[in-house]
Specification:
With 289 residues, this protein is an alpha+beta fold. The protein has one domain: Inorganic Pyrophosphatase, CATH 3.90.80.10. Helix content is 19%, strand content 24%. The chain is built from 5 helices and 15 strands. It has a 5-stranded mixed β-barrel. A 3-stranded antiparallel beta sheet has the order 1-2-3. The longest helix is centred in the C-terminal third of the chain and has 19 residues. It is globular. The N and C termini lie far apart (41 Å). One of its GO terms (biological process) is phosphate-containing compound metabolic process. InterPro entries: Pyrophosphatase, Pyrophosphatase_sf.
Length: 289
């Protein structure tokens, strides 16, 4: 068990909905800054934002205090990804590696573009459908260099270390061998997923070829260095909330009481008895409106 837990505030698929993270003591923390990047030697933590097969575009709210997970909004409307034929929603558990940051002020030598101002993204390819807000331990296998509207947006490919088949996956070639077509589908999905919203296709560095595990870990480490500069105020975050409870050298560190006050000011937790539409119901409502 990771020792982390999550708490939902307000009803899912509403503008007010938030998922806050807690540590093993039940204290509120930031999934961006307080969850350690490493779970073990060569094992990384992953914050699950979007469970596989779902459509709601959930993400760590980088500009909100404590960085809860919330649904992305564009032009006042909640965002959902299209069911891009032949796929249903996201085709992996999707999320981010904590304590990383793709610096928009840093021009990446591999892509020629600056970072997208978010933690580095992860596509987890294991068999389990994870829960939103779950913290899992992953083994990194490779990486894809996507360029999204002129910004570098790395996509790490990883597998949950608790997956029954995790021992068989140690590098990107194992994915090619054991899941034929999955990496090609991943490129296709990322290339086209914004097209139904009227956006152009995304582009890729390295001719859309996946780089291996060692390359991926080097990229993750560089984004960790950028995060460190951000949270210690050596880099201007331009609106990013660096409020945290654990980073001793950070001027943004606060005590657990201050973190609790942030959450207590929000709508109460959604009771288990409350009825909310399913993700799919909301998706079809979105399509019709």
């Amino acid at each position: 068990m990771s020792g982390f837990s999550s708490e939902e505030r307000a009803a899912p698929f509403t503008l007010e909905y938030r998922v806050f993270l807690k540590n093993e003591k039940g204290q509120y923390i930031s999934p961006f800054h307080d969850v350690p990047i490493y779970a073990d030697k060569n094992v990384f933590h992953m914050v699950v934002e979007v469970p596989r097969w779902s459509n709601a575009k959930m993400e760590i709210a980088t500009k909100d205090p404590l960085n809860p997970i919330k649904q992305d909004v564009k032009k006042g409307k909640l965002r959902y990804v299209a069911n891009l034929f032949p796929y249903k929603g996201y085709i992996w558990n999707y999320g981010a590696i904590p304590q990383t940051w793709e610096d928009p002020g840093h021009n990446d030598k591999h892509t020629g573009c600056c970072g997208d101002n978010d933690p580095i993204d992860v596509c987890e390819i294991g068999s389990k459908v994870c829960a939103r807000g779950e913290i899992i331990r992953v083994k990194v296998l490779g990486i894809l260099a996507m360029i999204d509207e002129g910004e570098t947006d790395w996509k790490v490919i990883a597998i949950n270390v608790d997956d029954p088949d995790a021992a068989n996956y140690n590098d990107i070639n194992d994915v090619k061998r054991l899941k034929p077509g999955y990496l090609e589908a991943t490129v296709d999905w990322f290339r086209r997923y914004k097209v139904p919203d009227g956006k152009p296709e995304n582009q890729f560095a390295f001719n859309a070829e996946f780089k291996d595990k060692d390359f991926a870990i080097d990229i993750i480490k560089s984004t960790h260095d950028h995060w460190r500069a951000l949270v210690t105020k050596k880099t201007d975050g331009k609106g990013i909330s660096c409020m945290n409870t654990t980073v001793s050298e950070s001027p943004f560190k606060c005590d657990p009481g201050a973190a609790k006050a942030i959450v207590d000011a929000l709508p109460p937790p959604c009771e288990s008895a409350c009825t909310v539409p399913t993700d799919v119901d909301k998706w079809f409502h979105h399509q019709k409106n």
